[in-house]
Design goal:
By secondary structure, this protein is mainly beta. It is 7% helix and 55% strand.
Amino acid sequence: MKNSRYVSGVKNTAIALAVAQSFSIGTSFAQSVDGNDSSVEVIEVRGIRASLSQSLAKKKNSDEVLDSIVAEDIGKFPDTNVAESLQRIPGVSIDRAGGEGAQVTVRGFGPSFNSVLVEGRRLATDTAGRNFRFDLLGAELIGGADVYKSAPSHLQAGGIGSTIDLQLQRPLSIGEEKAVLSTRAVYEDNSGDVAPQFFGLYSNTFDDNKMGALVSLSYQKRKSAQDAVTSGPFVGPEVNEEQASVLFADGEGNGAGRYIHQQQIRYARQFQDRERLGLTGVFQYQLSDTALLTMDGLFSQFDISNQTTHNFMFNERATYNNAITDENNVLVAWDQIGRPFQAAVEDNRVSQVWQVGANLEWDISDSLIATVDLSYSEAEDDSAGDDFFFVVAGPEAVQRYDNTQGLDAPLFTNYEFELATSDLNGDGQINSLDRVVGDQITAPDPNDTYSWFGTREGQGSSDEILELRTDFEWYLDKGVLENVTFGAYYADQEKSRSDARTPGGGNGINNAYLQGQIPLPAELFTLRNNDNFLDGINLNAPSQYLAYDPEEVIAYLESDAALAQRDLLNNLPLGTSAIRLGLDPSNPRADGGVGFNAIDVPRNAFVIGEKTMAAYANAKLTGEVADMGLTVNVGFRYTKTETTSEAFAEPFATIFPDPTRPDVLLSTRLPAQFIKQTEDYDEFLPSVAARLNVTDEWVLRASYSKSLTRPNLADLNPGINTAPELRLSDLTGSSGNPDLDPFVSDNIDLSIEYYFNEASAVSVGFFRKDVSAFIAQQEQREAITLPAGNRLDEVTEDRSNIEGDTIFLNINRPRNLNSTVVDGIEISFQHVFDNLPGLLQHIGVSANLTYVNSDDEVGNELIDAAVALPGLSDSQNFVLYYDDSTIEARLAYNNRDRFFSGRQGPEPIFTEDFDQLDARVAWNVSEKYQVFLEATNLTNSFVKRSGRFESRFGGIEDPGARYVIGARAIF
């Protein structure tokens, strides 16, 4: 084996050699494993400055467009979350969940456009798509991260935005016996709770440093709370002039036309328990002077118990009056007759992921090195049917929606009322619009609460990935040709989704107590105050809400007393409700439903298989041009992919109106029908990368590469999915498309970099990504024909989308439609002020700016069948730090500009500007012991979302601040 093959687990190339040579200062040093010769060189990094310096050295000497993060010490990543650290890299932005970084966007391309690898291998994910959730892994388990922004031929194809390779700690890289222990206490500002966190690592070498073993364990717990105001979709019908005269306060609005309104507005208080357990194990054995075997395993379990109480208003257009519209035909205020709803929602996540792998590196000769890597990974989120969505209702009230007050969220209030016996509004009719409004209802009443809707629900997912990779490095040293690398790759992946929920539809269990309401016992409910709800936001929130345990409500609704009461109050024969709920063993339901228990829903499930084969080759050329060192890499990758999509269709058998609610259609389904489709495609992906070392300080780069991102596996699902209840005002559905081709991008990178000492540099980079076959969502009107006896003739309220036995739905499908170009500039600066006197010499800064632009950037227009780039936004990062080996302090500021983050049909949803300030201070009591304080979101920033217009409210979330006190020891 050649000396210095591994540097902190990174294969020895010119990059790693330069990194090793860059550190003879401060707290970063290199040492041999023994006093003489060794096949592994050890690099130890300690402190903020050393971490940033090593990252800078890797960037400088890379043949590719690369940014890196290096752990500040063994088991000590710069942030407690991997994604939070990645956002400090130019061009990287993150999306948060529960106040933690969860997913990344790179250069304007969202999570599904970025491949995430662990030691060069794909890690199975607990999502239905390709996006990786970084909150699944504790940061202490990670030793470093490389973010490839270009697409060299040796990397797996899949990341148009980037390829992110996470590295684990390696025992032979540590090179001696080491033990690390750390503990934290985490205080959540919103919940006021404290939770423990723990990390431990042990590494040692044996047999004259030819063998090494490492194990680590990470345990993290959080008890958080989050307040939010969330928005439902905007829907609405066509309104003629006669209807407008009744609907609008001024008798006309904007005249005849389609008016839309917000279907739901929810004031939500969420309590969340997050528990994460992570384990890694690594075994390395120097089989001979020419062969090194590495075997490793990773396990992570992430359990989230997420309970939310909603105080919300569901808007039923049939009873609207006193409405006000804006110039865009969005209703911004109205009155209606409705019920004040209290919902209890549980949305859990029970995720497990594990990976095992073996890697053999063999020096076949002095000039030829072979590497064989085999890995297998599984992930599972076993949440199908384990969640619930439960709603109880107060008595009917006049409900007032008002988004005209200049508040940060719409206001809704409830009032007592009586129906009049005369034509009060003068429309010639005596109906629900003739009413006398009384006092405001300021709080829900546990003694006057009724059943409404309830379902157990939830989706699960599983993912399995088998990978085999062979790589060869052939060192020729023939003139300008330094080496040739080549190899092959095979992967077999299967991703599935399951769905289970309480039976619904026309004779469903979930709506049984809506169609036959009963009063609920007051002892099931507790009236609670909305203390400090979204404190700091300009709104007028409901002051109180009903807290209840849905399991207790379900137990009551399944009881003999409740079933008998439902029969009595709704004039049903005794035993009817027991049959409806599947609780009469002598008369079981055809769908197998028993009470509110969840059953499998085949039409919402799928299995997608994907096999990938690839081969690559690359030639590295080195030389000089006018005494300037030039390195050029020319390569290609050929990849072939075959996908198999399996799903179930459950066609409608009947569709008919709900007798108790206008606009709502109920349905029954035919037995599930199996669907299977196989497709394949291949791509040739060339790459050229050049680096010119103008001087020891100045570096110029230019690269071209072609890359691809495969369609999200969930988008290949051929089945059609609709809401459990159809609405005449919103006849929509969604489906996948097994015929999708991959996104393909031609990428150009140009940069100039100036390194003015080992810890200081400034760089400016330009990039362009020209993406073809862009997959866009397109809504099309599709005909669905039902069999005889379908009951469509019973629908009389609105038959504009019904013709005989056919109903027309607007089905949203992904399709390869367009191309787009994204341009951007990345500017970064890093400097240590070591020429200043005294304490000032220990101060450093790291800052970067990213500007991205696209002609297809989503603005205030509909996006149906258009390119829509979620996450495309400018971002800025600034880190100020102090590191004198005894005291380490860091203040990190991040800002992300407004960006398109989602859609409701063709309507875009935007996340507004978001900034956050984090801090960390540590005291190295001795070489072995450290105590520290950390703070996340010191600015107490809120996440705000909006639609195309100011009147299209999107939502507000308060993740809150988080504080940590901890201690760390290394032996």
